[in-house]
Design brief:
single chain; 308 residues; mainly alpha; disordered N terminus
Length: 308
């Protein structure tokens, strides 16, 4: 069922979308505070502490139905294991990139994710591509190839983030599981490996947690809230805004990361980056043309009282 176009004016939905994507855009600042901690240890804590936070949230939201809703078919659980591993890879690369002053690459990666989604939808879901989408994917690919040629190596961080998050979305698309419940299962399924890894670090006296740096301890535990809070806001926004409108908000986060990288962290912005970003931005404009037209048609139809 198509959502009414006037939902685009819902102030609560807009506020929730802004909160989610601005928060995601500022996340590099948070993980800069954990630069002294290895990316694998940060990932393990992010997984472990997200489980109780998600359980509390779902208990508050669903009450006594929480345990009933946790029961899923084995096939769904197997797919969630795979999506959880893909998501963990995305988190790991992101944390490593921020710690190693590669925030600009993370911005490029998340700008490219919508275009990867278009390509994956065409390949795996047999979705047809419009002329604008074909041109957009071609332009984005050309920009990435130019950046690789300019740098003398592929922009593997950006490519890994874009492809892994695109694949994560594809895997979750085939599952009829809510975002919060799905994330809980994903983190629970890789909880034990994360815990074993932390015990292994402890046995080698290589862990950073509980070593006297209270600030580091709080940041590691707080990574669970950094994971869950924006997802809650995003869910609120998704319920109150049409997806065609919500899609435009997704460019806020990588835009903010781009500004942080260039103006706050003074990362090197080369001619290759300029060409790659220009191609990505042009491609995003092309991809957004058709959804924007559909949103305008629905809004016009709504105002005229015509069913959309």
């Amino acid at each position: 069922m198509t959502q009414p176009a006037d939902q685009a004016l819902d102030r609560g939905g807009i506020a929730a979308a802004l909160a989610a994507f601005i928060f995601w855009g500022l996340v590099p600042i948070y993980y800069k505070g954990l630069q002294t901690v290895g990316a694998w240890e940060v990932l393990a804590h992010r997984i472990i502490w997200s489980v109780p936070v998600l359980l509390v949230f779902l208990a508050i939201r669903d009450g006594g139905k929480t345990w009933q809703r946790l029961r899923l078919p084995l096939g769904s659980i197997a797919w969630l294991m795979l999506s959880g591993l893909v998501l963990a890879l995305n988190w790991l690369v992101f944390v490593w990139a921020v710690a190693n002053d590669r925030v600009l690459d993370t911005s490029l990666g998340y700008f490219g994710t919508p275009l990867v989604n278009v390509f994956l939808g065409f390949v795996f879901l047999k979705e047809s591509l419009t002329r604008y989408q074909v041109i957009a994917v071609t332009v984005a690919a050309a920009g990435t190839v130019y950046l690789a040629w300019f740098l003398g190596k592929p922009p593997w961080i950006a490519m890994t983030l874009a492809v892994s998050f695109g694949c994560y979305g594809l895997l979750r698309k085939r599952l009829d599981v809510g975002p919060m419940l799905g994330l809980l299962w994903e983190t629970m399924l890789i909880f034990l490996p994360a815990l074993i890894f932390l015990f292994w670090l402890t046995s080698r006296s290589a862990q950073n947690f509980l070593q006297g740096a209270i600030g580091i301890d709080l940041l590691l535990v707080g990574s669970s809230l950094v994971t869950v809070l924006p997802l809650i806001w995003f869910n609120v926004a998704a319920k109150k805004l049409p997806l065609s409108i919500l899609g435009f908000f997704q460019y806020i986060a990588p835009s903010m990361s781009f500004l942080l990288a260039v103006f706050l962290y003074d990362e090197r912005f080369t001619q290759g980056h300029a060409v790659a970003f220009a191609c990505i931005w042009l491609a995003l404009v092309l991809v957004s043309i058709e959804p924007f037209r559909r949103a305008r048609r629905r809004l016009r139809a709504s105002r005229q009282g015509i069913p959309s």
